[in-house]
Amino acid sequence: MAMGVEVVQRLARRGPGAATVTLSVNREAREVRLEPRVSLLDALREHLVLTGAKKGCDQGTCGACTVWVDGRRVLACLTLAIACEGREVTSIEGLAPDGELHPMQAAFVASDALQCGYCTPGQVMSAVALIEEGHVADDAEIAEWMSGNICRCAAYPNIRQAIREVRDTRDARDARDAAGRARHGKARSARPGNAAGGS
Ligand code: FES
Ligand code: FES
Questions:
Q1: Which ligand is nearest to the CA of 78?
Q2: Of ligand 1's atoms, which has the minimum distance to the CA of residue 55?
Q3: From the CA of 76, how far away is ligand 1's center (Å)?
Q4: What is the pLDDT of residues 136-149, one digit of tens each?
Q5: 130: Cβ below 6 Å to ligand 1?
Q6: Tens digits of per-residue pLDDT, 106-123?
């Protein structure tokens, strides 16, 4: 996440001791006291007890800590928590707020897309974002855009299967919705007295 001049100036005015930081996490405002050097990952795990995002490498190479900031995936271990003030942070806990699995989580289970599960929260956060980003044309594209998420258990084929499943279900639903809209539009234009219907 690029840090603007305004953010840098704000950071310079606070710290180096603990400061009060207000974060919006999974649509809930949370106030924490932390030093400006604390990463978003540590803020989530150690201060807010949201332990879904995992600490694999703590240096930006494994993807286990992937969360979203303003809907875009970021590595929480390389993001300063204080720089996320005024932004919306979504962690894996926010994908299933009512305890019902997100379709991607359900697809991971159905596809057996995990073994030890340590990388899984980061994989799921990336996979959902990947669909939104539209980088799911084929396995090669999926593999490339998921390459920041390492799986030591090498569950990659099953992870790709889960992503394909969600992609195909969504495509089928979109096609049905489009057909429904087209049918609805035709019915309206064919009504007597409707100029567009030619009567
Ligand atoms: S813990 Fe953040 S990339 Fe590995
Ligand atoms: S399931 Fe074990 S690291 Fe991915």
A1: 1
A2: 1
A3: 7
A4: 999 999 999 999 99
A5: no
A6: 999 999 999 999 999 999
Q: Which ligand is closest to the CA of 119, given by its number?
A: 2
Residue pair 138/158 in contact (Cβ under 8 Å)? The answer is no
Structural domains in the chain plus CATH codes: 17-95 (3.10.20.30), 103-189 (1.10.150.120)
In one-letter notation, the amino acid at residue 1 is M
Residue that the structure tokens 């539209």 belong to: 134
The pLDDT of residue 13: 75
What the block records as the tokens of 60 is: 């930006």
Which amino acid would we find at residue 167? R
Pocket test for ligand 2, best of 55, 109, 112, 116 (most atoms within 8 A of CB): 116
From CA 109, how far away is CA 127, in angstroms rounded?
14
Ligand nearest to the CA of 54: 1
Q: Which residues, listed in sequence order, are joined to residue 185 by a DSSP beta bridge?
A: none
69 CB neighbour count, 10 Å cutoff: 17
Indicate the range of 12-21, 74-83, 121-130 predicted with least confidence. 12-21
Q: With contact defined as beta carbons under 8 Å apart, do 113 and 130 qualify?
A: no
Ligand 1 centroid – CA 150 distance (Å): 10
- Strands of the 66-69 sheet, one edge to the other: 28-34, 19-25, 88-90, 66-69, 72-75
3-state secondary structure of 88: strand
